[in-house]
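Please, structure for the following, as tokens.
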Amino acid sequence: MDYFFISREDFRARLEKGGWAEWAEVYGNYYGTSAAFLDRALAAGEDVLLDIDVQGTRQILRMYPDCVTIFIMPPSLEALRERLEKRGTDSPEVIEKRLVSAREEMAQKDLYRHVVVNDSLPEALAELTRLVAAEAHR
């Protein structure tokens, strides 16, 4: 929900100082989650939801080993292919790249505390909501 845009120079400077809880360079752009932002929110007792890939999850787990991780997974690669093709926003080459990436990430699902299979959006949302509520009461 919250995005903050900074210059590449500022991002690199913060990177050198260890200012990112997780970060990546994707297609020439930097993306990251501020460690200071997370620390302030967690110290205030707030829950923070991050939408990050497996690489980011590995980084977050190094800094916050007790965090709750949830992997949202398609029912199959074929189902994912169908969804991507139905969108009509990506070329066949981009879809193939995304499927290779998805296969690699799905192979690492055991890194996560929970796995939610998004076969039916209402059911997946209900499961995600249940997991978040259960973790909040732990």
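Strands lie at 20-26, 29-34, 70-73, 114-117. The two ends are 25 Å apart (CA to CA).
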